[in-house]
Amino acid sequence: MEQVAREPSAASANSSSTTGKRLDADDVTVAYVGGGSRQWVPDLVQDLALSAFDGTVRLYDVDIESAARNAEFGNWVQDRDATTADWEYTATDDLAAALDGADVVLLSTQYNPTETFVHDLDIPKEHGIYGAVAATIGPGGIFRAMRTIPLYREFAAAVRENCPDAWVFNFTNPVHFVTRALYDEFPDINAFGMCHEVLHGRDRLAKLATEHLGMDADRSDVSVNVKGINHFTWIDEAYCRGVDLWPLIDELAHGEEGNRTFSPAELEDESPFTDPWQVSWELYREFDLLPFAGDRHIVEYATWFLQGGKEELNRWGVKRTGSDFRAKHWTPSESEQTTDVEAWLSGETEFELEASGEVLLDVLEALSGGGKFVTNVNVPNRGQVEGIERGAVVETNALVGANEIRPLSAGGFPRPVRSLLRTHVDTIETVVEAARTGDLDHAFRGFLLDPQVRTLQTEEARELFAELAAAEEEYLDDWNLDEAEVLAKADAY
Hints:
CATH superfamily of one domain: NAD(P)-binding Rossmann-like Domain
CATH topology of one domain: Rossmann fold
């Protein structure tokens, strides 16, 4: 199990923790909702094969063929020589059967990107909003939330009915909207939003400590006091094996490392996941805290960097994830991001069993009594973040132990950063409120709060909202479109 070197001095165990069933490492039942996943399931299969657990994985998906393919892959991996665990995979399109008595529930779903994600990116762009990702906030991220929240309310209700004490881990974006919706439907759910952006940040700090302090460090050596909301987290403390990294962070932010610029030509052949941290360094210089998610996500919350379109965004080393890239996600053989398990199964591509670098198995090991573990999680605010309303989903470190996940108190923020965060929290809370009754007009109020949308006149914001609703109407059937004034007033619907 990965161990964090130390807990930051500002962090302490919060009095409110989540407790649930203790896992039996010899017999774990995992229900995977979204079991046809092109990315997360293949990674999980390999992590489970190399774990200290045995059990059963039920892969649930309305696309039963994709779930069956992943089940075949999972059972195929069990025959590899390097496998250390014993797992059996089955596929089902019956949600209740998948969840019945499950110990662990994993959530990762996505609609066909050619019918959804592509519109999230392209339609706002026509209105001058040059979003970098459109996955978690901004007009595209809000619509992704609107088509996802109703489904996740159904999942939460099904968990309440079939496995109320299960540990539930959500990997679906937008993590804060979705995790909040789970709790809104089932307040006693043991749900946690999981994200690897903070892990990548710790990887980056370990690399910097190695390059500049000669420490030969890796992620497990780095501890940070992380706080904020998903994809807009910040740190105010960082240590590597007990060495304070803040002087190095300050030096790099004000030196050559933190003041580089890029041209569109320089980024032309780069992956959209390239990240030289220039946005992070700039925000550190302005606010004395370091953002701790990828710059491609941060710019969607700190929207100054989106102004001026491609050239200005690229200047900071951020490359937009285009709709053509997203469209390929549905076809693994064409995608740079997803996994083509059929190529492994057929022998077309050589398979090598390797861990994903995610921390889910470390969390499960700690829950089963295998020691303490600290990692970042997204849960409702019960006091772990000061200055953000209680109940809103926030991201901090949490201490995981036998039968317990306890968020760690992370403190608050200077007023300017707190103001930035509160705006997005208000957007999230407004949309979640609207989803309870399918009130599209109330959702539009949350849409208007978004800083990207605020670059538009209200009339144009209404047209943008209506265009997105028209393009994705098939996926918004839980919303009351027929009686929505915002659509009736718009020419685009």
